[in-house]
Amino acid sequence: MTSDEQLNQVRERINTIDAELLRLICERASCAQDVAKIKDAHGEAVKYYRPEREAEILRRIKLQNPGPLDGEEVARLFREIMSACLALEKPLEIGYLGPAGTFTQAAALKHFGHSVHTQPFGAISDIFREVEAGACDYGVVPVENSTEGVVNHTLDMFMRSPLLIAGEVTLRIHHHLLSTATEIGAIRRVYSHQQSLAQCRGWLDRALPNAERIAVSTNADAAKLAAGDPQAAAVASEAAAELYSLRVMAQRIEDEPGNTTRFLVIGPEDSPPSGHDKTSMLLSCRNEAGALHRLLSPFANQGISMTRIESRPSRQGVWDYVFFVDVSGHRAAPDVAKAITELRGAANLCKVLGSYPEAVL
Amino acid sequence: MTSDEQLNQVRERINTIDAELLRLICERASCAQDVAKIKDAHGEAVKYYRPEREAEILRRIKLQNPGPLDGEEVARLFREIMSACLALEKPLEIGYLGPAGTFTQAAALKHFGHSVHTQPFGAISDIFREVEAGACDYGVVPVENSTEGVVNHTLDMFMRSPLLIAGEVTLRIHHHLLSTATEIGAIRRVYSHQQSLAQCRGWLDRALPNAERIAVSTNADAAKLAAGDPQAAAVASEAAAELYSLRVMAQRIEDEPGNTTRFLVIGPEDSPPSGHDKTSMLLSCRNEAGALHRLLSPFANQGISMTRIESRPSRQGVWDYVFFVDVSGHRAAPDVAKAITELRGAANLCKVLGSYPEAVL
């Protein structure tokens, strides 16, 4: 067979697959409409978006994926298919921390797919307000950045908002070497946040062994300094390169590719159990020796693992500190429920912010 | 059957469909790998991205789509599936006019799907340079905006660049009523570009019959004016609302939902015939009475329809005007080829900028 004949054969096969894919995608959309009709006929309050069911499906897809596409990629395709099917019933309105083009918008689209309508807001408090008022179905806000630490404003909002956490999204963040220099040999100084420098240590040791490393308070500051000094480079994001007209001299120079930023999905309800869930809560106790240790003991007693703890000074004057705690497991699970009951007896404040599926993508 | 039983039945059906979809998507990705292997084995220059083939597939999908999803939505899902399969071989590097979050990035992702790597550049000339140098596989640049007219800088670049047009992308643009006012009754004045006011006339007649309409030079200027006047509103985009902290008082108020912006995909080669193509070219003639009419007669003689013509003053001093002309049909088609041959004899300048599939999505 000539190469053209072989190619035509494969292309015919692709055409057949495409026709079958189209049929199945449309059948899936019809099923989604059937679900809505059944609920409607039984007078149920129709809740189209089911985060726990979507998480289950995505996990199953990743598990069953035979390749050659990687698990993330097939899960992303299924996210888009589910997003399109959901939008048939009612396109979700998603508020996010703007401006457009930020990581938070990327997180919103990663979580809900591209068939939703996203709306940027200028402040985290605006997003809480819009979701509370029902103008948006859900909001997406940043909460944790492994380079810049916790986004405090989001945590503060939870102290006074009735909204719950319905999901989490993680995004991988990459570091690049940015400079105005035309060749890497000209670089004498590298600016960045301490943590970013640490995350790229191996690469910097190899590529720029003699350049001085200077820690500054943010990666954006580093980019600004590099923009004014032809012998300097910054370790920062692509966005910073653009903002300060720097060249990307080397891409993705982080030693471990696991640098992530975390976002939370906020809504009027949290999520039913999906099988792999987290629960977030706000806790507070008086500032006494051993108080925090005692406070957290119900988790240890139930064998529940804590995935994160952050302390924040309380703004309400009554307690000295408020702790944001994430644990593994859903609040409906017996062990988590028991720990929460114990906590409610012991803590000055115990506010469950919601249970939601662990990020799948 | 109870509603729960009915729902479980539909959900089981969805699970079966999902397993089948996963199998087919992965098989499709394997086929894409086979195509690469066959080409490799025959020592062919492997060109993975085939714009004409993608356009054919998307057109077929839209034609065969039985619903309930609309044609745009299924085509978008197939775009993503093709994008993921293509990225298995070699993820495309796409330069676009930044910053991130602009319509041009949206156009790049709409055309290539989300499995490519997009890189923002600050100027249209930078994108041409990076694609010419091979640092990017393709570039995406704005060329036409039905509200703001042609993007002249892009057209000027084509006069001196060897790059060709490999595709076009259109995006629908929506108009919103933006204001600092809390209710619509307070609005006495509406600012916007003349064309945007015209595009929303029906809505403005109904909702704001007594408000004065004031034409200004851009919609961004309108938003700025509205930001400083509590009795004013602007007709502008969501991005303008955000930039000037205006509230979106009414969404998508355009009378016809067909307001689009057009972008071009530039690359080292144009596209082979897909069945529904356009050809863009640069033409010039001396400024004499009837010259343009004579120049264009080969198109008329061959029955070729012209979809756009724009005149630009030439910067090269030799000709008075340069015309950018788009016609229906591929330059490999006999009628277009014949017209081009005739043009080459008659025009001072006849530079074919490329043939490419008409935008499908």
Give an overview in words:
- By secondary structure, the first copy, chain A, is an alpha/beta fold.
- Chain A has four domains: 3-89, Chorismate Mutase Domain, subunit A (Up-down Bundle); 91-173, 3-Layer(aba) Sandwich (D-Maltodextrin-Binding Protein, domain 2), CATH 3.40.190.10; 176-250, D-Maltodextrin-Binding Protein, domain 2, CATH 3.40.190; 270-361, Alpha-Beta Plaits, CATH 3.30.70.260.
- Chain A has twelve helices and 15 strands.
- Chain A has helices spanning 3-41, 51-64, 71-89, 103-112, 124-133, 152-160, 194-199, 201-207, 219-227, 238-243, 291-302, 334-346, and strands at residues 93-97, 117-121, 138-145, 149-150, 164-172, 176-179, 189-193, 212-216, 232-236, 247-250, 260-267, 277-285, 306-313, 321-328, 349-357.
- In chain A, the strands form three sheets. In chain A, strands 1, 2, 3, 4, 5 and 11 form a six-stranded mixed sheet that branches.
- In chain A, a hairpin with a 7-residue loop joins strand 13 and strand 14.
- In chain A, helix 11 runs antiparallel to helix 12.
- Chain A is globular.
- The relative contact order of chain A is 0.12.
- The interface between A and B is large, with 70 and 71 residues.
- Chains A, B: Pathway: Metabolic intermediate biosynthesis; prephenate biosynthesis; prephenate from chorismate: step 1/1; Amino-acid biosynthesis; L-phenylalanine biosynthesis; phenylpyruvate from prephenate: step 1/1.
- Chains A, B: The record marks 261 as: Essential for prephenate dehydratase activity.
- Chains A, B: Its EC number is 4.2.1.51, 5.4.99.5.
- Chains A, B: Residues 93-268 form the Prephenate dehydratase domain.
